[in-house]
Amino acid sequence: MIVLERYILRRMLTFTLGASLVSLAIVWTVQALARINVVTDTGQSIFTFLKLASFLLPTVVPIILPFAVLIGITQTLTTMNTDSEMAVIAASGATRTVIYRPGLILGLGAALVILAVSHFVEPYSRQFVRGMIAESNSDLLSLAIKEGSFKRIENNVYVQISGKRSDGKIEGIFVSDSRDPEVDLIYYAKEALISKHGDESFLLMYDGEIHRQETKDGNLSIIRFTSYAFDLSALLPVAAGARIYPKDRTTAYLLNPPANDGLFRSLPQMYRGELHKRATQWTYPIVFALMALALAGTARSHRGSGLNVTFAAVSVALAIRWLGLYFEDMAEKHQAGSYGLYLVPLICCALLIWQMRRQRRLQLSSLSNRAGDWLSSISAPAKRRLQRLLPDLLRGPETQP
User: Which residues contact 145 (CB under 8 A, 6 or more apart)?
Assistant: First the structure.
């Protein structure tokens, strides 16, 4: 690699890292705030929240990095063209390879990063996040009781206590469970105690009542008890929160899922779709690098009209990535969607390489220019007719003497 190529690559890498950090900060903040309830509802520390948010970063890298590469290359070449560096390179007799090679190296490097993250890092980070949330939910009732206030555990489930003694026993517990649309349940006990046996937790209630009311006819039945053991899994759907989906599995697991995996037996296409997604997701940095080079890889006049290059590149990239996401969702349900995952990057790469080999800059503004010429050709006759009629309209009708 010659000195000029290293110079261009260094500038591209600087812009790409800057765009990556800004984008990751924004997306990370949104993802973290979406899970702030882990702290507010379960009483976890801020350290736990930061740890959870940090493990969310690998899940957004495959989405953010291709756009960062696109912005980095486009912004570098646009700046070089503004500073007349592109014109100097073209006038010196250098081939376009001097411009193309650094961008392709950057795109290939980003593709390798995404390949490693999607196959080796992201599955473990997703499993950690799901396990962490499930563990927090398992202690949710215990933490809510410690607060000593009326609290919603989940939809239509509420708990209130009168107080808590130093020996750990609860005084005056009230539980309202209206999740079943046909039955409303109310539990009341003078004393209660949370007991854990292995991975299971129970709420032991003493000297209380259970009110069971049918919502259809309003019939009410009251059951008095001396002691009653309540399985907390009936209140907290911990198992659902800890469920592992194909996107949380490692690639080795997806290639050979065990026979006892119920989700694989019922939805095998979801596992195949996730494999095809990981096999094609790394290609988008290369596609976006080619697009940036096709758009901004040629010296152009400052007086040339057209759309902003970076805006045009990002707009087209969003459309391509949206199409890829559409096929990713489709691939989880139908085999035909898997073909689209491969066709989108292949067709885009073929078209962009063909455009670059013709040594023509991809002009997105040509469509707008043609549309403007077409509108002008239509409006010109109407404009001339209006100019002829305007004096007569301003003069108004002649009055008879």
Answer: 159, 161, 164, 170, 173, 194
Question: DSSP assignment, residue 117?
Answer: I
Confidence of residue 377 (pLDDT cuts 50, 70, 90): low
Percentages helix, strand, coil for the chain (3-state, rounded to 5) are 65, 15, 20
DSSP string for 228-266: EEEEGGGTS-HHHHTPPPGGGS-HHHHHS--TT-HHHHH
- Three-state secondary structure of 298-325: CCCCCCCCCCCHHHHHHHHHHHHHHHHH
HSE at residue 156, side-chain half, CA atoms within 13 A, is 10
Give the model confidence (pLDDT) of 305-316 as tens digits: 445 788 888 999
CA distance 69 to 118: 17
Backbone dihedral angles phi then psi of residue 218, each to the nearest 5 degrees: 80, 10
Nearest CA among 262, 267, 279 for reference residue 328:
279
Structure tokens at 163: 């107080």
pLDDT at 178 over 80: yes
Look at the pTM and tell me if it is higher than 0.85.
no
Using CA atoms, how far residue 273 sits from 180, 252, 268, 318, 347, in Å, is 36, 15, 9, 22, 20
Per-residue tokens: 369: 């220019």
What pLDDT score was predicted for residue 172? 85
* Size of the chain, expressed as the number of residues it contains: 401
Torsion angle of C-alpha atoms 91, 82, 362, 373, degrees rounded to 10 = -110
Residue that wins the pLDDT comparison between 281 and 196: 281
The arrangement of strands across the sheet holding 200-214 comes to 151-154, 157-164, 170-177, 183-197, 200-214, 220-231
Q: What is the per-residue pLDDT across 247-276, written as a single tens digit (0 to 9) for each? A: 889 999 999 998 888 888 888 999 999 999
Q: What is the DSSP string of 82-111?
A: HTTHHHHHHHTT--THHHHHHHHHHHHHHH
Q: What is the DSSP letter of 398?
A: P
pLDDT score of 399 = 42
Q: Please name the helix (run of DSSP H) or strand (run of DSSP E) that holds residue 272, with its range, or none.
A: helix 268-280
Give the span between the Cα atoms of 253 and 265, in whole angstroms: 14
- Rounded to the nearest 10 degrees, what angle do helices 140-147 and 122-138 cross at? 40
163 confidence band (pLDDT: 50, 70, 90): confident
